[in-house]
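Predict both folds.
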Amino acid sequence: MRRAYIIFAAAALSACGRSPRQLYVDVRFSGAEIEDIRSAVDEVNKLACLIGEDKLIEIAGEFRDDDGHFDQSNIDDGEDQLYRIGSAGECSDYTEHFQSKFGDIGNLYGFYTGTDTGILVFNLNQPNRPPLRHVIMHELGHYVGMEHVTGNSWAVMAPTGYGPRSFTQADKEEFCLRQGCDPD
């Protein structure tokens, strides 16, 4: 009887899984932009079932960047944050890096710093930019460990993957490659 109880307790504890990552959102996003972010988070959380989890990400609250300037200290503060970057001047420490990698910063819509996480969203007022939801889904894909998908330009995680409204089979395969799960 005692052995059965221990096995049952272990199974119950393992079903709890790991806690979702806590993401804080810049207060400068508008209400409509927050809804797009929530929708993107919901889409990323659909990948959680592939690894037996309920959620991968949870919006934990808002933050205010008091100095209005993004620099290394922002990503070394111990919190995962989603920044609304209004202009290249707000992240001048990174502009040179962005321009060498992506060309004119006017073509950059999102960026994942990969350290103590900073996800940057650019050019929200630029005409013909991809929908915010698509940009956020792509950057959150990096946040949960995904790399770019090559050979499938319609995948969310394609280097310019801002078209699909949900993760494709190629995206699920990339996620499972990194997480050790079955994409089907």
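Second protein follows, with its predicted structure tokens after the sequence.
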Amino acid sequence: MKKVIRLTESDLVRIVNKVIKESGYRTKFENHEYWIDEKGNYIKFDPDLENAGYYDFDYEPYSEIDNIEDMPEDIRNDLYGDEIGEKMYNAYKERFGKFKYARKKEN
């Protein structure tokens, strides 16, 4: 039997931020002024650098996606998981815009 779990928006934000904090990439929704790094820090970048897709030497240029299917599988699984995750992603996207991510460069 499946369980129905109700989450508030603040629960959803807290869960997503926790997963991001434990990962090797940064994420951002378009309308936010900041990126969230793998340590959970909120980072504000120069808009000109961000528009060019670069913000520091530790991360690759960002990728912007329109659909959850366009997100790399490992990031999608970490952040959203199963079909409930797709609903969470779509609700978040509707409110905040396109999703952006940047992977940490390998040394």
